[in-house]
Structures are given as C-alpha cells and as structure tokens.
C-alpha cells in the first residue's frame, strides 16, 4: 500500500449561499484545491453528498460535477453516508491512491440545504424510518435523548453543554469561512430558545450550504505539488445500530470508538498523541460523546472538558479549532472534508489566529445520523 498525502485544499464559505448553486459551489471548492496544489488534472473524483436529490432535485452527481469542472470522462462517483458522506468520500479517495489505482484523486464534500426542501424531513432519512421517524422523532429529539442519558448516567449538566457551544464559537470567531463567526456567553446559550429539551437553539448546528475539496496523491509524488504535504497515516470506518433504542448504551457512540481504534491502529499512534482534532459536534452533546469514544477523556468525563479548557486552543487537546459544525456550519455532505481541511491547515501552520502551536499530528472524525456511521482520519505533517 502506498503512502498518501493531501497536497491541496479549497472550500467555499459556509452559510446561506443564495447566489450559488450546487454545481457552482463544487467548482469553487474543487478549483481551489487544484490551484492550491498547482495541478491541472485529476485521475478520478469522489463527491460526498447526503441528499442532493431531495435538497435540490439533483442526483447523478459524479458525472455532473466532472462535466461542470471541465473534466468529462474522468472517473467520478457520488458517495453517501448521511452526514458522514464527505469523510467517506475522503476515505475512498485515500484507498484509491493507496492501492495504486490512481495518482491524483479529488475528494469533494458538498450540500445545498437552503433551496426550499423541508430540512427536518430530509435529515430524518438518516434515522430509522420504521422505529424512529414513523413516531415523529427528529434529530434534535434523538440527540436530546442522548443528552438526557448522558446527564442521567454521568451527571453532565446543561451548563457543561453550553460551554461546548461557547468554546466552539470562540474558535469560529477566528475563522473567515465560518457561518457564525460570533462569540456567545454561557448565559446567552442557556437563555436561547428550547428546541428539544434539554437542547436549546445555541446547542445546535445550523442549516448550511457549502463545499470543500482536497487533492490527494502518493506521498512520493507530493513534492511536485507542494513543499508542505500532509500525510494521511490512518483511516477507520465503522457502523452502529441505526435506531438509538437498539444500542446497549445510548450515551456512548460505539461506531466512533471502533472507527477511532481502526484509524489509531493503522497510524500506530494513540489518543494521547493527537495534538489537534475536529469532531462531529452537530449538537453540543455530540462533541462530549465523541471525545469520550475517541479516548481523549475517560468515559463519562467529557461533560466538563470545554468548561475546564481541556478542549480549547491552548488546552491539552484542542477540539474543533475551526469552530466545528456549531459555528463553522454544517452543510452535511461537506462537513467531513472541511474537517480534514482544518487539520491540513493546522499541520501546515496556516490556521492564523486559531493556530495550535507546533501541531504535527491531527485527527478528524465525521459521523452520520445519530452515530450509525463514523469515519476517522489521522494526519501527520511532513
């Protein structure tokens, strides 16, 4: 298996991009990645998108995007794994380069969520239709149940959850691509509108448009494109029960643990070696559960991590330096690739005011639904 590196990255701003179509966002992000690497071609591409068909009426994204990018004929395929679609597209690109099938592969994540679809209903397709959606549950409702289970078992408080939002918005305020580069106080989070008790509006990631792209090649060819490649040293993918009720412990994300263990094993490192991480904070409780499942903190100890500064820039393990899904935004198919771009920038020392000092090893974790799929990548500066 060949060693693989990211040599270029590009992304749109995240937010309500009323003046850009799905294909226009793709071209902006993809062109940004190629321009960043000084490349003028790709051998193949993977397009991570959760639900282009329902959000915009457009499926068959592989050939469409290749054509829009001026590369008709290039192998191009649409990848779907709910909100983990971007991360899985990156994994497929990594595998193709590592296997020696192609030398230049583009991984793009994209979603256009604000064009008029019922977002709640579209996102609900990632939950169990027979056991959950039929009875009226929504994703805020599912994560509210996860939060309640965590609070009951471990004593996590609403203030603990509020601090996750406060910390991520503090980070996101330093990110010019973020949808909400705005800081909030704990009091503002706790007084925001209730969505699904105990989760309030400022515990929840927003509805977003956006695209993100990375260009991969064999490590031994990377110097043709950049003098600062970032190596992908680990990749892990796992699944869990789609329905929350079918899990042994609704407060613990088994798929995140398994995907992390597989990525750590491939990379030959452990949780304590990671210096910066992006995790899937679609709701504040999700970050708490993810850092526990990845082994950054002990099981049940994730609640106070943000309040204590453990996961802040300058803390033991800075988490979601981009602002996370909470502040940066969450165009669901684009999120996994955007997370990889944040780590790419961090390991190249390009993160500006949110730079983690001397970061050399980073992790990105992206998941679908209420944790039924999870993909983890580990990156190393070269």
Description:
The protein has about 375 residues and is an alpha/beta fold. The chain folds into 2 domains: about 5-120 and about 205-225, Peroxisomal Thiolase, Chain A, domain 1, CATH 3.40.47.10; about 125-205 and about 230-380, Peroxisomal Thiolase, Chain A, domain 1 (3-Layer(aba) Sandwich). About 35% of the residues lie in helices and about 20% in strands. The chain contains 12 helices and 11 strands. The chain has helices spanning about 20-35, 50-55, 60-70, 85-100, 120-125, 140-155, 160-170, 185-190, 255-265, 285-295, 325-330, 335-345, and strands at about 5-10, 45-50, 75-80, 105-110, 195, 200, 210-220, 230-240, 275-280, 360-370, 375-380. The strands form 2 sheets. Strands 3-2-4-7-1-8-11-10-9 form a 9-stranded mixed β-sheet, sandwiched between helices. Strand 10 (about 360-370) and strand 11 form a beta hairpin. The longest helix has 16 residues, at about 20-35. It is globular, with a radius of gyration of 19 Å. The protein starts with a strand and ends with a strand.
Structure at a glance:
With 382 residues, the protein is an alpha/beta fold. Helix content is 33%, strand content 19%. It is globular, with a radius of gyration of 19 Å.
Instruction: Output the CATH topology of the largest domain.
Output: Peroxisomal Thiolase, Chain A, domain 1
Give me the Rg, rounded: 19 Å
- Tell me, what's the shape? globular
The biggest sheet, with number of strands, parallel, antiparallel or mixed sense and barrel status, is: 9 strands, mixed
What is the typical, i.e. mean, pLDDT? 97
Strand elements, count: 11
Number of helices: 12
Give the DSSP E fraction (strand runs of 2 or more residues). Answer: 15-25%
Look at the structure and give the CATH class of the largest domain: Alpha Beta
